[in-house]
TrEMBL record:
Name this protein carries in UniProt: Conserved hypothetical integral membrane protein
PANTHER family named among the record's database cross-references: TRANSMEMBRANE PROTEIN, TRANSMEMBRANE PROTEIN 245
InterPro entries: AI-2E-like
The keyword ATP-binding belongs to this UniProt entry's keyword annotation: no
Pfam family, one: AI-2E_transport
Positions of transmembrane segments: 33-49, 61-83, 147-172, 207-230, 236-257, 269-286, 306-336
Keywords in alphabetical order: Membrane, Transmembrane, Transmembrane helix
Source organism per UniProt: Methylococcus capsulatus (strain ATCC 33009 / NCIMB 11132 / Bath)
Length: 362
């Protein structure tokens, strides 16, 4: 009885300790998750740094972290310089744009019932300045909270980036010993099957990296090129937005499709149709062909399952769900396949036993 009470007490204390530990670490889980992902992907670079600095772990970890930080921050600085020019151009052209008389595209004004009503509303104003003067205060009231939310999100993301780099340094310095300890503990619990689980995680992370991230970057570049060709203002901003949206499966058409519709509404039929064709024949071709092939071939997992993992991961865990969602479903599929294999082996042993029994009796 005393032994049972002691075990229950220890279990309760461990559960309380685990709960408190989770409460302390919870604000940093996103940063830790990204740091683990980046350290795994960039570990060959860290290994090269260790050889370069003759095994000095702290110095090599600091150099590797600084290199990765510069890879992230340098493009942001470069984009800020480019965006400064585009924003300045937008501000310079804003007065002329406001002096234009608002007009609807012909295909909109000819819509039955609604076209005439919309045209009557637009005809009340001699220029866009009057239209904005009347409706801008209401728009500002409606958009105030979303804009404030966006600014708050930017600050939070900057904090996450800092904490990710901070955690990344310690993972590079002590991550190998930590991985060895984790492997030893889980091997004691799960046995040799742990090797298969780690292989599944490795293949899934590579699939996420190559099948989602790199494809999204390629789509963002091609979309930005298309925006620039058809003459859309701020093509770099739209290209970056397309890249982020492309992280979500089948999200890219919503990006370039929205720009195409906007061009058509502005009466730029040739530009809108050209961008739609470019998006359908070039940008979406990468999404519909390369991504499924890369993910499926790398993980031997149906693409639809990876898609569910990405979407569900985004909904449940935020941006880190791009990695975590597919990994969780891949692990579940690995366990399922292992269980099926055990069932088949048990069935075969049962058939062998039933076949030899009668022979022995004879």
């Amino acid at each position: 009885m005393n032994r049972s009470v002691r075990l229950i007490t220890i279990a309760l204390l461990l559960a309380a300790l685990a709960s408190l530990t989770y409460a302390v670490v919870r604000p940093f889980l996103v940063s830790i998750g990204w740091a683990v992902f980046v350290s795994y992907v960039a570990w060959p670079l860290h290994a090269w740094s260790q050889r370069r600095f003759e095994g000095r772990k702290t110095l090599s970890a600091l150099v590797t972290t600084a290199l990765l930080g510069s890879v992230v921050l340098a493009p942001l600085i470069w984009l800020a310089v480019l965006l400064q020019g585009e924003v300045s151009e937008l501000i310079r052209s804003l007065p002329d744009w406001l002096e234009q008389k608002p007009r609807l595209p012909d295909f909109v004004s000819h819509i039955p019932y609604f076209g005439n009503e919309l045209q009557a509303v637009v005809d009340q104003f001699e220029d866009l300045h009057g239209l904005l003067k009347r409706h801008a205060p209401e728009w500002v009231r409606r958009l105030g909270s979303p804009v404030l939310g966006i600014m708050t999100t930017l600050v939070q993301n900057a904090a996450v980036l800092f904490m990710t780099l901070f955690t990344l340094f310690f993972l590079f310095r002590d991550g190998l010993q930590l991985a060895t300890d984790v492997r030893r503990v889980f091997t004691r619990v799960l046995g040799e099957r742990l090797k298969g689980y780690f292989a599944t995680i490795e293949a899934t992370v590579k699939a996420v990296l190559y099948g989602i991230v790199l494809t999204a970057l390629a789509q963002g570049f091609l979309a930005g090129l298309g925006y620039w060709i058809v003459g859309v203002k701020a093509p770099i901003v739209l290209g970056i937005a397309t890249t982020l949206i492309a992280m979500i499966p089948f999200g890219t058409p919503f990006a370039w499709g929205s720009v195409s519709i906007w061009l058509l509404l502005q009466g730029e039929t040739w530009a809108g149709v050209s961008l739609a064709l470019w998006g359908t024949l070039v940008i979406s071709w990468i999404d519909n062909i390369i991504r499924p092939l890369v993910i499926s071939s790398a993980t031997h997992i149906p693409f639809v399952l990876v898609m569910f993992g990405v979407l569900g991961g985004l909904a449940s865990f935020g941006f880190i769900g791009l990695v975590l969602g597919p990994v969780i479903l891949a692990m579940a599929l690995a366990v399922w396949r292992e269980w099926l294999q055990q069932v088949r082996e048990a069935g075969l042993r049962g058939e062998d036993g039933s076949g030899t029994g009668p022979g022995e009796r004879r």
